[in-house]
Amino acid sequence: MDALDLARWQFGVTTVYHFLFVPLTIGLGVFVAGLQTAWHRTGKEHYLTLTKFFGKLFLINFAMGVVTGIVQEFQFGMNWSEYSIFVGDVFGAPLALEALLAFFLESTFLGLWIFGWDKLPKRVHLATIWAAVIGSNLSAYFILAANAWMKHPVGYEVVDGRARMTDLWAVLTNSTALAQVPHVVAAAFVVAGGFALAVCGYRILRERRNGPGRRSRVDVWRTPMRAALVMTAIAGAVVAGSGDMSAKLLYEQQPMKLAAAEGLRHDTAAAPFSPVPGVEIPMLLSFLSTGDPGAVVGGTEDLQARFTERFGPADYRPNLPVVFWSFRVMIVFGMTTVGLSVLGLWLTRRRRRNPGPPREIPAWFARACLLGLPLPTAAMTAGWLLSEIGRQPWTVQGELLTAASVSPGVGLGEVATSLAIFTALYGALALAEAVLLVRHVKAGPEPAPADPPRVPPSGWGADAGDGGETSPLLQPTLMY
Amino acid sequence: MELTTFWFAVIAFLWTGYFVLEGFDFGVGLLLPVLSRNEAERRQVLGTIGPVWDGNEVWLITAVGAMFAAFPAWYAGLLSEFYLPLVLVLVGLIVRGVGLEWRGKVHHASDRFWCDLGILVGSGLPAFLWGAVFADLLRGSATAALVGGVFSLSLCVLHGAVFLTLKTSGPVRARARRTAMAASAVALPVAVVALSNIPAAGEGGTDWAASPWLWACSLASMAALAAGTALTWRGRDGWAFTATASAVALGSAALFGALRPAPLPGLTVAEAASGPYTLGMLTWIGLIALPFVLGYQVWSYWVFRRRLTAEVS
Known about the structure:
The structure holds two protein chains of two kinds.
Chain A: H1 3-42, H2 45-79, H3 81-115, H4 122-151, E1 156-159, E2 162-165, H5 168-172, H6 175-209, H7 214-219, H8 222-253, H9 255-262, E3 268-269, H10 284-290, E4 296-297, H11 300-311, H12 320-347, H13 363-371, H14 374-389, E5 394-396, E6 400-401, H15 412-443, E7 470-471
Antiparallel strand pairs in A: 1-2, 3-4, 5-6
Helix pairs in contact in A: 1-2, 1-4, 1-6, 1-14, 1-15, 2-3, 2-15, 3-4, 4-6, 6-8, 6-13, 6-14, 8-9, 8-12, 9-12, 12-14
Chain B: H1 3-35, H2 39-47, H3 53-70, H4 72-81, H5 83-102, H6 109-139, H7 142-167, H8 171-200, H9 212-233, H10 237-259, H11 269-272, H12 276-303, E1 307-308
């Protein structure tokens, strides 16, 4: 182990950890905003109850996404100073834009949403959650554009050993980014959908056990469950479609990653696809990666020879088993969740012929939703391992090696210290977050007040002088 | 004005906004155990920053992101140079953030204690360390770092106490006002030492005439601190807060003025800068976006402009 290995471990640990929370922020935010919109449109009280219930889960998770995100931004400069100096001119721009255009929007309007329930007109308050959600999704676009540039650098030239941006538009419309953004954002909706399904599944199982009136209490969870099923199924289709686009781009832009993901050692015409070792579907890989079933797909060993010729002697192969297996985990786990959602849509379909009470959600399906909770997150994590470990040994494909990216002045002891601190802290916080989420799901939604407390709009426009005009504390549900 | 100079000013502006806004957030976090005697008062104290602290923190994220984009070598050099202090800053920001967000979502007093501890430690670490890091960067000695850290810590406490005096009512407000007076007894003498060291570390050294603006900012910052104390004494809360905010801003202006033209030893602003294309593009986008950002942030402060009472719920 040297400082480089530990710096890589630190980046891996902190980034994977950060991305446990981000997908829920992205997807659950839209889910909550949708519930509040439904309340606004219909005026039905149970939508408000659900908005607050899922809103609280969203906020517990949101905190973790924010605080672990700051580490990410600092980490490039702290552990990867050579990388930062090389790429800053290009890579820094989307990061700066992300903060200016997305994070301010997200944080300011989320603050207004959390504390504005009795301070803002209903319509304006609804707009604040949508503004925050737009901020979250916009931030995903910018950071993924930056990440895509590492895999497929465009719109730049290298001057004096540093990348110089020549075309911002090219960076922001990088083909890799345009395939990656829908893939990751839609996957985030699958993760959030899977989370909401598990929560609804748990609540349904619990309400079923209760005696009289159980039917109506179970039915409360039909709406969010149907919404989560629709969200997961649609997002799943987008994930699959954009994943196919990404595979075709890999063929052109990162052939080594494609070869590693498939375990293909030598250049092969009409290459087969092997879902698990030993099983091969003829010509499928060539077809999937080019659209031509007879095309030649590069293999790791032959690519290694060609890369050595082009870039000089080094090992240009990523960790082959990790890339190979994370690819499979991603597809199998992700598709299982999407399959579950399609099944659920069929089980909860409307009665066409004889109108009556809606179909009861079977207990086994609710249990399956609960057990399926870890699947989409595992798929998401595996996808990132495939994407980023598959990029190795490069930080910037074809331009900068990982070994040349690390901070020269930071010693083994420093990286080891920070890795130990972050790992311990993150572990403790993960435990606390899990306990908090479980507790709130178990407690269930708080009953909506019969008459929602609203400050009359007369306070608007009043001056906050030194005279001591005061406002009572806000509803305790969403604040301190 | 040259683009590199302009972007150095932009980054100074972003850091200044961060120091002014998170300065009182840190102060509020540090004063939580001092000013509140029961749960209702703790909620009252934290409620003053509840809606805005996350937006305030984005000033830091934007400042660092802009440094990465506009001056990659400065960003990389600064962050790798001050590695361990920055790890502790990050730890502080993490435990403070989850403490603030989770506090309202736990129901046991012992859980709230842990959140409060996170808020306290997480406010104290960055409040001390930012001053220490920048003083060390400027003067390159452990003594300077210590003085800088004590200065920024005491300034945050004073700024936070003045903010709480402005934003609360009842017993908490009275305590905040007394605490502000006590904090200024520490902050003012330390400020004289720390602030006079800032322009002295600049290009012109101790020669007043060589760097008149730096000295002007530094002295004006001291004067604003004194004025903030006097105005708090007189019960002019709004003006007192304006004064301490100005003191932080003027001190920060002096700091970044002294860091020019060499923000790191052996590295000039021009050497650290990105190319004119990147700076030009960022300038256009920034000029279009910044008015909106400032507009809705100001609006959020307007929405939550009223004083908070400690109401038992």
